[in-house]
Amino acid sequence: MRSARTAKHIIIGLLLLGILLVGGWYFLYPYSLGSRISASEPLSLSVNITGVTVTGKDTVDTVTYEFQPDTQEYKALVSLLNDYDYHRSFLTLLPLEDYTPESNTTTFQLQSTDSQYLLTDKGGFSAEPVSGGKSLVYAIGYLGSGKAEQLTAELQALLKSCTPVETHDDTEMGTT
């Protein structure tokens, strides 16, 4: 009787350990940001800086850049993205209709022919088909937003050598 109970506890313990290992692998396995980019299609990158004015109005400053395959800028962008990883988070399990980052955030919207990706300096990363559909939200870095802040700083440094194709400043009339 006692050995049956011990065997039952061992089996339950091994089952729980297996669940923890599979769950850990599912959430913590890293994927390269650059792996989502095709090396043969043009990319559009919009930098959106949101904030609030001293009078309480929401602001969004947007600068858009175009990257063509086989250019130095394109190769530098893909190389930079290859240096960073993302992983699943609990939000990945919940496909969202729309992923909206919080205010006072720098957001990089990278768009290819069939997909668009949203990177934030707060650690969020979302992927969504251009034709519409659910957004899947991932995380950059494992502890806090340090890796995401480092990535956005490197992206901003890279963009200083690029020429924007469009600039837009927008101030909302409402207050926060």
What's the helix and strand layout?
Blueprint: H1 2-28, E1 31-32, E2 43-52, E3 57-67, H2 72-82, E4 85-88, E5 106-111, E6 115-120, E7 124-129, E8 136-140, H3 146-159, E9 166-175
Antiparallel strand pairs: 1-4, 2-3, 2-5, 3-9, 4-8, 5-6, 6-7, 7-8
Helix pairs in contact: 2-3
What is the helix fraction of residues, given as a range?
A: 25-40%
Q: Main sheet, how many strands, which sense, barrel?
A: 9 strands, antiparallel
- Distance between the ends: 66 Å
Question: Mean pLDDT across all residues, rounded?
Answer: 79
Strand content: 25-35%
Shape: elongated
Helix-strand category: alpha+beta
Q: SSE order, as H and E?
A: HEEEHEEEEEHE
Q: Number of helical runs?
A: 3
Low-pLDDT residue intervals, each spanning 5 or more residues: none
Order of strands in the sheet with the most strands?
1-4-8-7-6-5-2-3-9
Structural Rg = 21 Å
The number of E-state strands comes to 9
State the gist of this model.
The chain has 176 residues and is an alpha+beta fold.
Task: Please give a handful of descriptors for the protein shown.
single chain, 3 helices, 176 residues, elongated, alpha+beta, nine-stranded antiparallel β-sheet, 30% helix, 34% strand
